[in-house]
Specification:
By secondary structure, the chain is of the alpha/beta class. It is built from 32 helices and 18 strands. Strands 1, 2, 3, 4, 5, 6, 7, 8 and 9 form a 9-stranded parallel β-sheet that branches. The protein has a 3-stranded parallel β-sheet with strand order 17-10-18, with helices on one face. Helix 1 packs across helix 2 (23-30), helix 5 (102-114) crosses helix 7 and helix 11 runs parallel beside helix 12 (293-307). The longest helix is centred in the first third of the chain and has 21 residues, at 34-54. The two termini are 37 Å apart.
Length: 792
């Protein structure tokens, strides 16, 4: 047996005996391989299960439903892997404030409140006022002594106004700052990341030049949090150049600090995050490899064994492929951390959160139940007298199950009864010093746009029409407000799917040689070619000719699935499905079931111009009548299909009819949650359709439409897609700064029958889209059809 093998076995024996592991043990286990690695994971999983049973929630893995609030992206540090941080110059180009205003924060938080979120995660850069005069000036202008002072104000404001609980993550804090934030935040956090001094002190390493990444400084914060009895979240980052010895020492350091400050039989570290490094474009580490999966899983298991059965071990679910979840759960995790139904992960904008329902399903498939917790973990909630500030305890109690300490089933946040309390944790009264110039009277258009961002449901139709008909400065305000809502909800990423179109109207069972037509054999060739070119989606739509057997809808789907099983099949509008249902004699539910069996994954929500019978009769009498279109899309959603949604504008419709259309889509979404995105599509041509406002330029028509769509649908349909094929790339860039976040598809023509797609001859290669996003100083993200991460 090798020396390493002997050390691994000694460490495993110590685990079995219940002994506390030291750094030598942890280092040996981090290098385990083969059967020893399997034993390591098995012991970690068993220890986790024992801890959950002892906590009274056997078989439960937790998560927190949250909104992510990036209070400022200025920072004095220069970490080599970070895309979260901006410079003042970048902020100016992005038209982004140095700090989110209270109004902007509440706009996001209230939307999260409506979606059932109970946690507001405040994340920001470390002490930007120490590096950037612009940050110091903003704080001075608004009456705050420091960034942490502003964090405390915002935290108190969030709980007072919405009842949501804040998890403050402002980086390195002094003991006095921790004490102040404890009165307004039931839990706090700061990643240790690593104890490696080499990564901090050596030129060229990831933390060089970042004063707040001094390991000794960060360990001191963890110690101070323990003395003050702050439920604290910390963890390590795997794959940033640290050695396995560094990982071992980091885990042991966290464990020892936790145990040194035990109160009521429990230490203050409520969870340890084991986070895997993911390389990001436009950073110094853009070419570094992602954290190795095997090393990552071993680190998770060793974290469990070092920390013991009663610690919560968290991994961020958006940083791993769902196919990797089984290994992470087997290695001993019991928490997925915060997951948002509204906001992006602003630190990892290229990695969207999983849908909570999908996460619950994946967790159930692995034999565990997903349960919602609060930002403070159950043990700290149940022992509020020890761990929570008395002024916060009532707000926590409103949301907590008194028996388990988890989030109470069905609990909803609302303004807590003690919102008007005074004292160190209470929000300051709004004053000129607090709110600065925004407390002065603002133009009617500005106030209306802010109301739309804050609470879309509060505007009546006439007010929405006023916004849609904005011109001049009022339109500029509208577009800026909508873009802020986009920025602080779905984030900065510009997304796009690599896809190809196939127009099923061109199908012929017997080849004719006509341009744009194709046979079943060519369907297979087209699909295989698209996959070979890197497409992840093929979009098929169009009503079959009456002379063709409606069973061809199913034959096309089966052929694509067989020829290119990796492609996501996005196929058939409600009008097409209705044709299959009627002529095929299947009925609507039967047609949808048959399409599912044939391999269809999602459906286009096109085939309608405006949800108005008046408009349909005038411009598209051959479209499905509105009631049948709506029945078709709702039935598809209820059958498990997700879909796009659209509005074709610039015909004969009025502003009020556009608003009614958006409201109707929002109503469907509230019922089914089936829409993935909304696409406002103008009439083609140089004029861009009939303007709502006589003489208003086409670009302003589009800006108003995109901005109102973002505001009215915010909190309902997350993504607003810009139809670049209709407006062109330059205008698309402008609309991405008016509330848009997505460019749709690349529309590859392919090498096989390129004439068979409805928009053939128009391509937007991924490289071009990346350049457009870079021009806007925004990251680019290739997505799947349903806005998930593309599997590697």
């Amino acid at each position: 047996m090798t020396l390493l093998g002997s050390a691994v076995h000694r460490a495993l024996d110590r685990v079995r005996s219940g002994a506390a592991l030291d750094a030598d043990d942890a280092e040996a286990l981090l290098a385990a391989s083969g059967p020893d690695e399997e034993t390591l994971a098995a012991l970690a999983g068993r220890l986790r299960d024992e801890g959950l049973a002892a906590a009274g929630r056997a078989g439960v893995i937790t998560y927190s439903r949250k909104v992510f609030v990036p209070l400022t992206t200025l920072c004095r540090d220069r970490c080599h892997y970070c895309v979260f941080v901006d410079t003042p110059g970048q902020l100016a180009l992005l038209r982004k404030p140095a700090y989110m205003s209270p109004e902007q924060v509440l706009q996001v938080v209230r939307q999260g409140q409506a979606l059932g979120c109970k946690e507001a995660l405040l994340t920001l850069g470390d002490r930007p006022e120490e590096r950037w005069p612009e940050a110091r000036a903003w704080l001075d202008d608004h009456g705050f002594a420091s960034t942490v002072d502003y964090v405390a104000h915002i935290a108190a404001l969030i709980t007072a106004e919405t009842g949501m609980l804040v998890h403050a993550n402002p980086g390195v804090m002094t003991e006095d700052e921790l004490r102040r934030l404890r009165t307004v935040s039931p839990s706090m956090g700061m990643m240790l990341e690593t104890t490696s001094r080499r990564l901090f002190e050596e030129r060229g390493q990831v933390h060089y030049g970042s004063p707040d990444k001094d390991p000794d400084l960060r360990l001191a914060v963890i110690e101070d949090a323990g003395r003050l009895r702050v439920p604290f979240t910390t963890g390590i980052l795997v794959g940033i150049g640290e050695t396995i010895r560094d990982r071992a020492e980091s885990l042991v350091a966290i464990r020892d600090a936790h145990l040194r400050h035990a109160a009521s039989g429990r230490g203050h570290v409520q969870e340890v995050i084991v986070q895997n490094f993911r390389a990001k474009a436009q950073t110094a580490m853009r070419d570094a490899p992602d954290a190795d999966l095997d090393e990552y899983v071993r680190t998770v298991a060793v974290a469990r064994l070092v920390m013991g059965p009663h610690m919560r071990i968290q991994v961020p679910p958006n940083l791993s492929d769902p196919r990797e979840f089984a290994r992470l759960v087997a290695a001993g995790i019991d928490d997925w951390g915060g997951v948002s139904p509204l906001t992006a992960d602003h630190v990892n904008p290229e990695r969207p959160w999983p849908h909570v329902d999908d996460l619950a399903s994946a967790t159930a498939d692995l034999g565990y139940t997903l349960r919602e917790r609060l930002t403070a973990h159950p043990e700290y909630v149940r022992d509020a007298e020890t761990w929570l500030d008395p002024g916060l305890a009532p707000a926590v109690a409103v949301l907590a199950d008194p028996d388990t300490g988890l989030a109470a089933a069905g609990s909803r946040v609302s303004t807590v009864e003690n919102a008007g309390r005074t004292g160190p944790g209470a929000p300051a009264a709004p004053t000129e010093a607090t709110y600065g110039p925004r407390s002065s009277p603002r133009p009617v258009a500005t106030r209306l746009a802010e109301r739309a961002a804050d609470d879309p449901a509060s505007l009546d139709d006439a007010e929405w029409v006023d916004l849609l008909e904005s011109t001049g400065e009022a339109l500029d305000v509208l577009a800026r407000t909508a873009d802020d809502v986009r920025r602080y909800t779905v984030g900065e990423a510009v997304s796009m799917v690599v896809n190809r179109n196939l127009t099923s109207t061109g199908f012929r069972a017997t080849p004719t040689g006509e341009p744009g037509t194709f046979s079943l054999d060519e369907v297979a060739e087209i699909a295989a070619d698209a996959a070979a070119l890197g497409a992840t989606e093929i979009c098929v739509q169009g009503r079959l000719p009456d002379a063709e057997d409606p069973a061809a809808y199913l034959a096309i789907a089966r052929t694509i699935t067989a020829a290119a099983p990796t492609l996501h099949l996005h196929a058939y509008r409600p009008q097409d499905v209705r044709d299959l249902a009627d002529r095929g004699g299947l009925g609507l539910p039967g047609a949808l079931a048959a399409l599912r069996d044939a391999g269809v994954d999602t459906v286009p929500g096109t085939g309608v111009k405006v949800l108005s019978e008046r408009v349909r009769a005038l411009v598209a009498p051959d479209d499905l009548d509105i009631a049948r279109w709506e029945e078709g899309i709702i039935t598809a959603h209820e059958a498990g299909f997700r879909s796009t949604s659209v509005l074709f504008y610039g015909h004969v419709e009025t502003a009020a009819e556009r608003i009614a259309h958006l409201r109707r889509l929002r109503g469907i979404q509230e019922r089914t949650r089936g829409f993935t995105e909304f696409v406002p599509i103008p009439l083609p041509g140089p004029a861009g359709g009939v303007p709502l406002v006589p003489g208003r330029a086409a670009i302003d028509e589009h800006r108003a439409m995109v901005a109102v769509s973002r505001l009215l649908l915010s909190g309902s349909i997350a993504h607003v897609q810009i139809p670049w094929t209709r407006v062109g790339r330059d205008t698309a860039a402008t609309l991405l700064r008016s509330g848009g976040d997505d460019l749709g598809g690349t529309l590859l023509d392919g090498r096989v029958r390129p004439d068979t797609g409805i928009e053939q001859g128009l391509e937007f290669p991924r490289a071009d889209a990346e350049r457009l996003a870079a021009r806007l100083l925004r990251p680019f993200r290739q997505r799947t059809t349903d806005y998930r991460e593309v599997s590697r």
